[in-house]
């Protein structure tokens, strides 16, 4: 059996590569510079191109840790949805205090956030609480989202971020707050509140954000009140959605100088001209349409999402044969080119009567005619389920219609 060869010793004359000590390594383009010559501010700029977890993993020495603490971390989705992620947020509160975006979600089973002031009746008393006040250390937050977070009571600290631009609060039913508290977010541009039953206040409180707000969505928050016209003079306001709130008003009050930047608006049934606005008799509709028609012609965006409904307390109302739906008791505006009309439709299944046109058909030689024909085809492609009807059938006609369809 051959003996293994012994390793040959390396002498000074060999061509072995020997790295210089770490502190004397040179930097490309700067033969006279070392790592120690790079300023903390330069490292912070480099860190600004990385995500929070990449920065956390690279904090290998005191200098890098100092640079990370001064870095303005670019907006990157960081979701706290477990105890592990919560502990990561605790570490970042010291290591990356300039984090710009955080989403606070649920925690693992058996865990919750510590109760705030005036909490609802305790439901999970045995769950392990975790302090949420560490969130207040991120003073440079631009985007904050609270999504189905186990928060209970009032937490003023959640509304004290001077640089916050976007606030999302979704289905945090036990989180108590009033719209007045948004004064602690002086540069807020986008507000989304959906399904927060403990939200209270008057939308007039949003006037402290008059110069900054561009988007407002407050949905399924029945304790929110006020008149939507309190938002009419917000110069940057593009999108408004107040469905399922107690907000009231009258679309006919909108003047030429109101909602100048508006791109979409969805108003609740408490507003004349809003979604779900109720009328008492089918015979009332021509009068309602004649009132709203000039507004639609001048500024269709105000009524694009409007749908009025026949009240269930109306003597004209009757039960349908289709589960979860009604006969065609809703009215909406429709448009083909410059031609405007309206039609009756069901509330959920979108089975409609034929269009009642309010404008004559455009002249065949007009520049609008081609667009009119194209959009008319789109309307007719959906078909008229209640063919031959331009308004809801009587109860007798309705049941006869369905009897024929079912053979």
From TrEMBL:
Which domain of life does this protein belong to? Eukaryota
InterPro entries hit by this protein: LRR_dom_sf (IPR032675)
Name it.
Answer: Uncharacterized protein
Tell me what organism the protein belongs to.
Skeletonema marinoi
